[in-house]
Amino acid sequence: MVRKQVVTFVDDLDGSEAEGTVQFTLDTNAYEIDLSQANQTKLREALSPFLEAGRRKQSQPLSRAKAANPRSTQSRQELQHIRAWAKENGYPVNERGRIPNGILEAYQSGTPSPTAGAQGKALKLLSTGSMSSEGPAKATMLSDSEFTRWAQRVLEEESELPQDDISAVDFTRLRTDLKAKA
Asked: What is the pLDDT of residue 132?
């Protein structure tokens, strides 16, 4: 079966087919609007007297945005360090892609996740010492349910974690983290 998807560029004012996007700034706010050729002409004609009487100013909205956005200045190594910190402190974070703002803010303030204790201790127990090769191997070899049973048993027998903490462990995330160490 063949599937064809059609995307229509729609004028934000009247719903007709748009020809392009017009960007403009007023005060300190940047705007973008999709318009048909007719509405683009109307906008430019309406602004024309103000543009002719006004002075052009060199603006730097992009550099201001970059300065306000901590992501833009972070190196690959910093992001890897933040991901490692997030995992150690119980935050769910992917190996690639955008790091959620909540995690960045927690990293900057040094705030561990509410489940950091149990999750971090479980990961540490199953990936270090005598478990340094067994934990990642089990995460790779076993099915989700088998891994959960195995990890739960190990945590109950070999850790000092209370049962409530063991119940709070996200075993799917724990398995993912251990696979990354394999």
From this structure: 62
